[in-house]
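User: Here's a chain of 198 residues. Predict its fold as tokens.
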Amino acid sequence: MSTEIFLAFITYAFVTSITPGPNNSMLLASGVNYGFLRSLPHVLGISVGFALMVMAVGAGLGRVFDAFPFMYSVLRICGATYLVYLAWQIATARPMQDSIAPGRPFGFWKAAGFQWVNPKAWIMAIGAISTYVPEGEDIRYVAIISILFAIVNAPSITVWVTFGAMLRHWLTDIRHLRIFNILMAILLLLSLYPLLFQ
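Assistant: Prediction complete.
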């Protein structure tokens, strides 16, 4: 991989990872409701799950969408349905009690599995492979791209959890927390707009 391609890919990975989307909205809400440490499995699940998705797309899974375009519509409908469910869970989350919020944050496996129904993650993965993996490269090159994406992704999305954990101290009032959770649920729903209506 040339230096120019490497720097361009790192930039792509950073920008697509740190910008708002379903994962980052949920991480912000998780940081507020559960704190930094309890949200770390969610962060790791996203990074590892997404790296595996990039690897799968690079190994040929992305061609399924080329061969069967309706599959992308199925993915968008399934992903949208699940995001609406998650938005409802966030909006109706019970208030935190002192340092430990009731309920459970997204775990590692749930966060990793969510990547496979997250339309933004599919767009990012397909974009990474189609743009930064030259024609004819073998699976080792794809593996490098996948690992680099995970390395860039983890600290980028951790910013959202950190910000949420910082807000936690100002959201101890039940009314303020409820308003915040409802706003996060609305933002999560709004993240569907470009995915469903592009």
